[in-house]
Design goal:
alpha+beta, 229 residues, 60s Ribosomal Protein L30, Chain: A, 6 helices, single chain
Length: 229
């Protein structure tokens, strides 16, 4: 009888072990929710004919194709970089700026570069920051066996993804913007009204409206009882 009892105990132990959830070894490092922001710089060379400040039709089509393919928007930063030996740089930049203005785009001129091979070539740079949201949703953490009581692996994914998708300029996630002086028109107007005695009331007109007490019901009964005492 000893051997069957031993097998019975062994089988019962294996059954209980199968019912026990495994210990979770998951860590938050397996579900990163970081927003990645990458700096991108696109380059195009505009080639002018010698002694001409206008692009040929072929070069104009190349510039249009570059802007369309790159999906350049007014939020991007565009730069013109002329050659150091370009005597027509000013008029050529004006022609390029006019072409970009028709697309609602603006550009900044960089100092002339001596490294440009031909004086009839001009570099056009488009700079932007591209944001990549985290890979969500993330359900890598086991649903059972969490003895550490840590948050779900998907916790915070929606917030990080929404921030990456809704930010107007991804550059703000890297360096932010300079805080400019605030306009003080509203505060100055209040001071002017105070000095001239034309102070506006802080209480809305509708707040001064009085309401009559309801008649009848419990309120009326209580009033009648009080007057009868």
């Amino acid at each position: 009888m000893v051997r069957p009892l031993a097998f019975l105990c062994l089988g019962l132990g294996l059954a209980l072990a199968a019912c026990t959830p495994p210990a979770s070894e998951w860590s938050e490092a397996e579900a990163p929710k970081d927003i990645h922001v990458d700096y991108v710089r696109l380059h195009h060379v505009a080639a002018f004919a010698p002694n001409s400040n206008k692009l040929s039709s072929a070069e104009a089509e190349k510039l249009t194709y570059f802007l369309d393919t790159a999906e350049v928007t007014p939020d991007d930063r565009i730069y013109f970089e002329p050659s150091a030996g370009d005597r027509l740089a000013t008029s050529r930049i004006a022609q390029l700026a006019h072409s970009l203005n028709r697309r609602g785009l603006g550009a900044t001129t960089l100092p002339a570069a001596a490294s440009i091979a031909s004086p009839d070539h001009m570099n056009i740079y488009v700079e932007r920051y591209v944001v990549t949201p985290p890979d969500c949703p993330n359900w890598t953490k086991p649903a059972t066996g969490d003895h550490s009581n840590t948050p779900s692996s998907n916790f915070g994914c929606a917030d990080a993804t929404n921030l990456g998708l809704m930010v107007a300029d991804p550059r703000d996630l890297v360096v932010g913007r300079r805080l400019e002086p605030a306009r003080g028109d509203a505060a100055l107007a209040g001071v002017a009204r105070y000095r001239t005695g034309n102070v506006q009331s802080l209480t809305p007109t509708s707040a001064s409206t009085t309401y009559a007490a309801p008649t009848g019901g419990g309120g009326g009964g209580a009033g009648n009882g009080g007057s009868g005492q």
